[in-house]
Specification:
188 residues, four-stranded antiparallel β-sheet, 5 helices, alpha+beta, binds glutamic acid
Length: 188
């Protein structure tokens, strides 16, 4: 279980998220990633195995303009450390990060596979991304979809989700893990 930083700001969010991940490095991790709602309104995602610096290098090579995003350092519990398994995980226009373990992910994965969702990672986390999407695509209400999805989860987690339809909404939830919300001036 490692770390998550999300933010919405009047400033470019990628450098703020990467600085946040650096502050969590002491916790240990094997890979890192960031997802942002880009200037064109689409999802922009970068992931790297290894150090936060490798992610920072990727972002420097190919900048990620945007003011709302989520980021993650992973300590693999389900699947090897790899770019495919690194977070954020994407389902449709939703990006999702999670720390912790979902004990009932296999049952959820079976039912989502039956609904046509394709899995590109070995993680328990990707299941939650698709679960939220499967509810959101019918309801259009991200907050209620997240609440319904977490009602189906067994395990400990801290998580955060964003959706390109909601360029000013950043959602988080926790169970058994801490979550801190900082309210700032033009920046949360
Ligand atoms: N269980 C998730 C995974 O293996 C999250 C691990 C973590 O807490 O970083 O990707």
């Amino acid at each position: 279980m490692c770390g998550i930083v999300g933010g919405v700001s009047g400033l470019e969010i990628a450098p703020i998220l990467i600085e946040g991940l650096r502050r969590l490095e002491y916790r240990g991790y094997d890979s890192a990633g960031v997802a942002i709602i880009g200037e064109s309104g689409g999802l922009d995602v970068r992931k790297a195995v290894g150090k936060v610096q490798q992610l920072a290098d990727l972002v420097e090579e190919k900048p990620m303009p945007g003011t709302l995003g989520i980021s993650h350092t992973r300590w693999a519990t389900h699947g090897v450390p790899s770019t495919a398994n690194a977070h954020p995980h994407v389902s449709g226009n939703i990006a999702f990060v999670h720390n912790g373990i979902i004990e009932n992910y296999k049952e959820l994965k079976e039912s989502l596979t039956a609904k046509g969702y394709e899995f590109v990672s070995e993680t328990d986390t990707e299941t939650i991304a698709h679960l939220i999407h499967s509810i959101y695509k019918d309801s259009g209400d991200l907050f209620e979809s997240l609440k319904t999805a977490i009602g189906q989860l067994k395990g400990a987690y801290g998580l955060s989700v964003l959706c390109t339809d909601k360029p000013d909404e950043l959602l988080g939830a926790r169970s058994g893990s801490p979550l801190v919300i900082g309210l700032g001036i033009d920046e949360n």
